[in-house]
């Protein structure tokens, strides 16, 4: 851990790559873990674009807790540590596989969401847009939020199976990874492609790879440091680079 903190203190172009592990500490269910979302029967239909077009109620019923419960979830210590590192001028940006918006809640300013985000929802027919909060309000009164103008369902800007990744976010993530002198992977199994290939771009460009994840990853052999405890990392990082006063985590 001391070696990792020293590498961070010496870096000026560090980039953080995050996966589900940073959010499970906050109570957000993961997708592919032992008790993950995809262990549920027919779960893959929930995020399938063809099924959404056929029957959007499958998505809204299946994701009500996972997606729309996020309104009440607070960022955890890893999110706070990453935001503190950005404020300290060490981290240039965050690349995340997560769709929970918690990095922004914690105060991170440069966040590339390579699997999309529910921050905006779009009508699949006429393209009208509603915010996450507006959709949450609609869901209090209807099982499927629909456009008042054309009657079509609203879909979140999350990448479903059968859709392409958001090109702008992915291209920005690739550019950031290639410029990094240190790529810090936090809480990702690095098994979901093409996102999992991004950290190797830093290595190919001469940068260093560090991984903090409870389970082994396919890129462990390319990492100069390999740690397992995200909570320990967050505590150590926040001890050296404290969170802003308004952002400190307090017990409930």
Per-chain topology:
Blueprint: H1 2-10, E1 14-18, H2 21-24, H3 49-54, H4 56-62, H5 77-87, E2 91-96, H6 102-106, E3 111-113, E4 116-123, E5 129-131, H7 132-138, E6 154-158, H8 167-179, E7 182-186, H9 198-204, E8 208-212, E9 225-227, H10 230-240
Parallel strand pairs: 1-2, 1-7, 2-3, 7-8, 8-9
Antiparallel strand pairs: 4-5, 4-6
Helix pairs in contact: 5-10, 8-9
Overview of the molecule:
- By secondary structure, this protein is an alpha/beta fold.
- The chain has a domain at about 1-25 and about 75-115 and about 165-250: 3-Layer(aba) Sandwich (Rossmann fold), CATH 3.40.50.1220.
- The chain contains ten helices and nine strands.
- The protein has helices at about 1-10, 20-25, 50-55, 55-60, 75-85, 100-105, 130-140, 165-180, 200-205, 230-240; strands at about 15-20, 90-95, 110-115, 115-125, 130, 155-160, 180-185, 210, 225.
- The protein has a six-stranded parallel beta sheet with strand order 3-2-1-7-8-9, sandwiched between helices. Strands 5-4-6 form a three-stranded antiparallel beta sheet.
- Helix 5 (about 75-85) runs parallel beside helix 10 (about 230-240) and helix 8 (about 165-180) runs parallel beside helix 9 (about 200-205).
- The protein starts with a helix and ends in a 12-residue tail after the last helix.
């Amino acid at each position: 851990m001391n070696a990792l903190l020293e590498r961070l203190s010496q870096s000026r172009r560090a980039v953080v790559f995050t996966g589900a592990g940073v959010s499970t500490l906050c109570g957000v269910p993961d997708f592919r873990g032992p008790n993950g979302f995809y262990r549920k029967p027919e779960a893959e239909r929930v995020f399938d674009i063809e099924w959404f077009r056929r029957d959007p109620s499958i998505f809204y019923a299946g994701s009500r807790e996972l997606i729309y419960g996020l309104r009440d979830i607070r960022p955890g210590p890893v999110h706070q540590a990453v935001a503190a590192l950005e404020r300290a001028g060490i981290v240039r940006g965050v690349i995340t596989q997560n769709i929970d918006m918690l990095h922004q809640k914690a105060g991170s300013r440069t966040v590339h969401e390579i699997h999309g985000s529910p921050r905006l929802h779009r009508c699949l027919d006429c393209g009208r847009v509603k915010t996450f909060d507006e959709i949450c309000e609609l869901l209090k009164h209807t099982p499927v939020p629909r456009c008042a103008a054309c009657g079509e369902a609203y879909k979140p800007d999350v990448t479903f199976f059968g859709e392409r990744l958001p090109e702008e976010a992915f291209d920005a993530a690739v550019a950031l990874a290639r410029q990094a002198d240190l790529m810090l992977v936090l809480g990702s199994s690095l098994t979901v492609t093409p996102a999992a290939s991004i950290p190797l771009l830093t290595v190919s460009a001469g940068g260093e790879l560090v991984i903090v994840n409870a389970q082994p990853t396919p890129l462990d052999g390319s990492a100069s440091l390999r740690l397992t405890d995200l909570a320990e990392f967050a505590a150590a990082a926040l001890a050296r680079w404290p969170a802003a006063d308004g952002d400190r985590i307090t017990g409930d």
